[in-house]
Amino acid sequence: MTCTRCNHQDCKRFGYFGKTRVQRWRCQSCSATFCEPHTKLTRDTMAANPDAAERALHCLLEGCSIRSTERLTGLNRNTIMRLLLVAGERSNRLMDARMRNLSPRYLQVDEIWTYVGKKRRNVRSGDSPELGDQWIYVAIDAETKLVPSFRIGKRVRPDTWAFLWDLHKRLANRVQLTTDGLNHYTVTVPECFGTDVDFAQLTKMFGDYGQFDTPEARYSPPRISGVISKVRQGDPDPDHISTSFVERQNLTMRMAMRRFTRLTNAFSKKLSHLKAAVALHFAYYNFCRVHSSLRVTPAMEAGIADHVWSIQELLHSA
Asked: How buried is residue 212: exposed, middle or buried, by Cβ count under 10 Å (0-12/13-18/19+)?
């Protein structure tokens, strides 16, 4: 190692720099101490070791909690949460820039429930408006499995309209759109897409048979007693009126993000961290994670990427 002050080459290892574990050196000529050249994973924002930071993000993306990630990587939990916020911001910018002029044929839309801080029944009049139930609107391409758009908000008409309008602006052609039975879609889809959409709604009827027979069956999913398909606009293909892929994406979210796991204390305490985690999840899912049925990433299948991205490439490309 060459000294950065006197350019002398007789330098010896001199421990590590703080908790980042960056190698420190000491010059035997001028006694100056310095660190070996290194790059930060998030450039000027995060001082953690790039390898440790990347491992931390991998842990979060595979369903680990903040504290378990702290135990696995050795990083402080506050550093991990700051890293999550930085990664979420850059993932948002990447998704917004890359998801343009898309040409899917069949889109499926659904919402998944979670909450911030406390559930709706425990929210008081003086609490922050960020607390309580939150819904993540998700759209997925049934063929390429690409997620072109998502939105976090309440299950109300303004948020539904904002999500569909953002989705419409990212498309370059007419699509067939299938949603669940939420009544907001019957008004907001024509408002956002106009006549340039083939729109159908799929409503599943659930029964409570078997759920209350035994205490063990209390948390079992209800059985589907019927499915109602309604064409709302245009001429959708009956064979592609389905929400199976987007519902499978909901399962992927619950398995890959610890804060979506039910009946735990791993729920989000701040809305900003929830938004960062969801943005990072979808950016990683689109560009870095190889889909098991496609054998490539959704972005490669959709033609907006030509290789599997790494996490560092994901964060530095925004």
From this structure: exposed
From residue 39, alpha-carbon distances to 48, 59, 112, 223 in Å are 10, 21, 38, 53
Instruction: Quickly name the fold that domain 101-288 has.
Output: Nucleotidyltransferase; domain 5 (3.30.420)
- pLDDT for 51: 83
The 8-class DSSP code of residue 309 comes to P
pLDDT tens digits, 282-303: 999 999 999 999 999 999 999 9
C-alpha span between 309 and 205 (Å, rounded): 40
Q: Rounded to whole angstroms, how far apart are CA atoms 149 and 231?
A: 23
**Helix, strand, coil % (nearest 5) of the chain?**
40, 25, 40
Which amino acid appears at position 87 of this protein?
A
Name the DSSP letter for residue 48.
S
Report the chain's C-alpha Rg in angstroms. 24
Domain map (residue ranges) of the chain: 11-81, 101-288
Question: For 152, how many CA atoms within 13 A lie in the half-sphere containing its CB?
Answer: 21
Q: pTM for the complete prediction?
A: 0.82
Q: DSSP secondary-structure letter at 293?
A: T
Residue 279: which of 131, 60, 56 has the closest Cα? 60
